[in-house]
Amino acid sequence: MKRIATLALALGTAMLMTSIGHAEQKTFKIWWFEEPTTAQGIVWKKALEEFKAKHPDINVSFEQKTFQQLQASGGMILNSDQAPDVLEYNKGNATAGLVASQGLLTNLDAYVKKEGWDKILNEGDFVLSRYDEKGIYGSGPVWGVSVFGEYVSCFYNIDMFEKAGLKPPTTLEEWVADLEAFKQKGLTPLALGAIDTSGQHLLASLAYTKADDAWIQNYQGLKAPLDGAPYLYAAQTLVDWVSKGYISKDSTGMKDPDAALLFTSGKAPMYVSGTWNLGTFASTIKDFKWGQFVIPTPKYSVGSTGNLWVVPKGSKNPDLAAEWISLTLSPKYQAELGNAGGVPIAADLSAITNPIGKNAAAVFKQISDKNGLGFYPDWPVPGYYDVLNQKDTGLFQGSLTAEQFVEQIKQVYDDAQENQ
């Protein structure tokens, strides 16, 4: 009996210890939507392994999400008990600003000082981190932190340009001349996902050729009814380019990955998209030399500091979330980001040996230093991303005229501006 009692006691103690062990082990949840082959996806995976090694007592759980998932359902997720401890979230009034104004994010002001982020990032880097009580960017508390930059450019096939005797354009007129030259050789010059982001990014890039400081500030800040003149010029230009064959009519049903494939397979000399492609292109394009040129505008480029690390209001581990943000902002991983072909926001350029990453970081700095980040066209209004994609498609398909396009996007914008 004594032996049985001793065994029972030992068993009970072991079970209690196991129970305590399980109870004490935290689960820390991280989400991001960067694809594994992108520079961010590659570098953050390395950082994740270091984070796990540093916290062997914590169950660090990572989930791969998609941009579309969080764009469509982010608010509902953040307002539920399914939210992670830290996640990548799209910046701008219509996304991060909206959920911040709804009280769904953690105010990070205290962590900015505690973690020393204000010593790494300048105030310009925090512009899209701050949102006021209405969800408008530029002022108020810090609700998220970006650790990379991004901008829209035109990727081009250097071999095809050299064979055609062409150089990357520095003016809009030169770009049109390049488009015409390739068309005369029987090629469709520009691959475009018209029903996806690259369609609206090209549209905005053309609009920004007619945009001054006041227009950008009014547009992105919902400060006035929409002045549609820059968009009218952009819409008319796109219709003209489709009619001339610079953009394929097939692009009206094409998404970005399909358009990117036309470029990476060497079938199209140009492709308009963002720096989030750099890592993927660097690893997949083997048969030709390629580069990128900034779409010629007087000042503004479609681009911004990158997506934000945000901490949901219901995060159970905000201190760990702040530690994770600091890790991805550290000199080690900022240099890694550049060497993976990404655009670090706070890297020592001398630590970047990859020419793609070094060039991208330098171009971003060039745009940023002249305050030329014009941001993205869907930001001002919640749901504007889908509106612009839908109306862009109508424009490319010919079911909307340039005037109808502007009239319809202006109505949505003006309603939001009036009711804010």
Automatic annotation (TrEMBL):
Name its cellular compartments: Periplasm
A Pfam family annotated for this chain is SBP_bac_1
Which N-terminal residues, if any, form the signal peptide?
Answer: 1-23
| Major location category of this protein | periplasm
Arranged from A to Z, the UniProt key words for this protein are: Cell membrane, Lipoprotein, Membrane, Palmitate, Periplasm, Signal
GO cellular component terms, alphabetically, are: periplasmic space
InterPro entries membership: Bact_solute-bd_prot1, SBP
User: What family, per the record?
Assistant: Belongs to the bacterial solute-binding protein 1 family.
Q: What is this protein called?
A: Raffinose/stachyose/melibiose transport system substrate-binding protein
Report the source organism: Rhizobium aethiopicum
